[in-house]
Amino acid sequence: MEKFIRDLPKAELHLHIEGTLEPEMMFELAQRNNIDLPYKSVSEVRDAYNFTDLQSFLDIYYQGSEVLQKEQDFYDLTWAYLEKAASQNVRHTEIFFDPQCHTSRGIAFETVYQGIYQALQDGQTKLGISSNLILSFLRDLSAEEAFATLEQALPYKDTIPAVGLDSAEQGNPPSKFKEVFDRAQAEGFLTVAHAGEEGPPEYIWEAINLLKVSRIDHGVRSMEDPELLDYLVDKQIPLTVCPLSNVELKVFDSMAKHNLKKLLNLGICATVNSDDPSYFGGYIAENYQAAQSALDLTKQELYQLAKNSFQASFLSPESKHKLIAELDDYCRIADLAKA
Ligand code: HPA
Ligand SMILES: [Zn+2]
């Protein structure tokens, strides 16, 4: 099963590039940029990854990001992720970046963007991974600050197909960003939003009705609202679920209690993603694997999750068709029928 999962052609649709910063690279960049870290060793860093909720993670995630200073740092970070993704047969990836996490420290938007974007272009030519960038606003900051960030992104809008919303969810409902998202859509951006990770189902409704999202990031608390579940199935609004993240941040007590399988079998377009793999103990294949073993997912269900990942992506219909055909071929050869 491990090999079947690793080699399964798949797309990753919920990945924060800052969340791919491995402790080894954190030390390397700290040294390169003359930054003092509050940790003495890689194992001390890993020991600090003991989260009680979303905020306890965010504190460490923002602190870690401070080693990212130069364009080359953003390039190296992104390239390391792409190599890892390629080794797990990720064929397409849509990655979040948090410009405000860096501009608030005096790093230029261009520095962040250029480093990431150059690596993504090399990912296409050297690794055969296609990609899309999603600019994510920090919802614990103001709508005005989000507007200013959107302005900075406008010169690059042809290479950033979507905007999103992340960071501390509770008390920062999607409605706070309605005007920013209206403006982003008028400029041609698609929209997504984290909702229903820690926040209530009402935040998912707001993301759909006010922010007009194409997908919901996380969305696992939709299970509390039958009407919402029906709506998600009916409209096939995808959920980008992140199993290891949910367990690490105590959204579920254990993987066995995760509702991924239930969501999938209700007919929701659920996908599996890694969120912040360096912090949550695994990349996309480890997320599929952990969910598979705890929930006893069949090969047919794994196939459906991978198919959903292509369907839910921002790829063109032709590219989706091509990748799904590749997935179908893979599963035929892997003899899905005997699974
Ligand atoms: O899972 C997440 N939720 C909210 N904000 C985030 N920023 C990085 N990862 C996350
Ligand atoms: Zn996330």
CA-based gyration radius:
19 Å
Class based on secondary structure composition and strand pairing: alpha/beta
On the 0 to 100 scale, the average pLDDT is: 97
Q: How many domains, as an integer?
A: 1
**Strand/helix succession:** HEHHHHEHHEHEHEHEHEHHEHHHH
The CA-CA distance between the termini, in Å, is 10 Å
The CATH architecture can be given as Alpha-Beta Barrel
What is the CATH homologous superfamily assignment?
Answer: Metal-dependent hydrolases
Oligomeric state as shown: single chain
C-alpha geometry: globular
Task: Walk me through the topology.
Blueprint lengths: L1 H6 L2 E7 L6 H10 L9 H7 L5 H11 L6 H17 L2 E8 L1 H5 L5 H19 L2 E9 L4 H11 L8 E5 L11 H9 L3 E6 L5 H9 L5 E4 L7 H10 L3 E3 L1 H6 L11 H6 L4 E3 L4 H4 L3 H12 L3 H13 L5 H17 L6
Parallel strand pairs: 1-2, 2-3, 3-4, 4-5, 5-6, 6-7, 7-8
Bound molecules: hypoxanthine and zinc ion.
How would you portray this structure in words?
The protein has 339 residues and is an alpha/beta fold. It has one domain: Metal-dependent hydrolases (TIM Barrel, Alpha-Beta Barrel), CATH 3.20.20.140. Helices cover 51% and strands 13% of the residues. It contains 17 helices and eight strands. An eight-stranded parallel β-sheet has the order 1-2-3-4-5-6-7-8. Helix 16 packs antiparallel against helix 17. The N and C termini lie close together (10 Å). 47% of the residues are buried. Hypoxanthine binds next to helix 4. The site of zinc ion (ZN) has 6 residues, from strand 1.
